[in-house]
Amino acid sequence: MDHTINCILLVDDTRVNVADLISNGSDGFIIRKGHHVLKIPKLYGYLKPDGTTEADSDNEFRSDRLDTEKQVYERLHGVRGIAECIECTSNGILLKYYPNGALSEYIARNPRPSMSWRWQWILQATEAIAGCHERGVLVFDIALRNFLLADDFSLRLIDFSNSSLVPTGEDFALAEIDGSTAKLDLLYLANVIHSICMWREFTVDCAMESEWPDLSSLPELEGFEGGCVIHDSGDTTKCEDVGLCWFRLSAMYRARGKREASNQTAARKSA
C-alpha cells in the first residue's frame, strides 16, 4: 500500500502540531513551546485513518542529525553570548525563545543606530566566537541570521548544525575538520563585523580557506577604526587568533569611549 508523508514526528514518534512550527531549516525543524523553542531532526510519518501514525522508514537515517550540535551546546554551557540551552533530550535541543528575532532582520527593517551601539554588537559577536574557540568549537556558520537579539538587545549566537568539535589536547589553531578552521571562522566573523558597521548585509560563502576571494576584492571600511583588524583577518597569510582580534577591537572601543567622554566634558566646560 502506498503512503504519503503527511505529518512531522518527534524521535519518540509523537506527532508534532504544525501550528507550533516556526522554522524549517536544512537540518531540522524549530517548534515553539511557550517561552522556549525545540529544535528537532527532520522526521516524517504517515497519519492513518484511525488517528495513529507510522514513522517513515528513512527516519532512522535522520534521527541522529542533531547529535553533534547537542555536544556543542553542552561544551559551550556558560559561554557568554551563546543562546541559552535549557536541555538536550532524545527528541531535540530545547532553547530559550528570543522574540526580538535575528540581527539580519533587525538591520533590514531599522535605520542605522549610533556607532557606539554598533560597536557593542561587534564586540559581542567577536567575544561569542572567541568563547567558542576557547572551548574547542569551530563554528563555521557565522552569519547575521544566527545572532539573535535578547531582551536587552544584546546578541546570542545560535545554530551549530555545521560546527565541529576539536578533540581536547589538539592544537586548535592548526585544527582542520572537513575544511573548517579557526581562520575560516575569523573570515566569516569579518563578514558580520562589516555588515554591522556598514548596516547592510555582506556575505562571502565558501567551504574552505582556499575558496576565499582575494583581499583586494573585498569592500573597504572607510571611516571605521576596526577596518584594519577586519582586513588583517581577511589576509589568510597573517590571520590572527580570534581572541586577539577581540582584544584589539575591545581596546579600540575603550579608546573611542574615552575620547567621546573627553569631548563631552570639554563641551560642557565651554558651554
UniProtKB/TrEMBL annotation:
Q: Which residues form a coiled coil?
A: none
A single GO molecular function term of this UniProt record: protein kinase activity
Q: Which domain of life is it from?
A: Eukaryota
Under which name does UniProt file this protein? Serine-threonine/tyrosine-protein kinase catalytic domain-containing protein
Please give the Pfam families that the UniProt record associates with this protein: PK_Tyr_Ser-Thr
Q: Which Gene3D superfamilies match?
A: Transferase(Phosphotransferase) domain 1
Gene source species: Hortaea werneckii (Black yeast)
Task: Write down the InterPro entries for this protein, in alphabetical order.
Answer: Kinase-like_dom_sf, Ser-Thr/Tyr_kinase_cat_dom
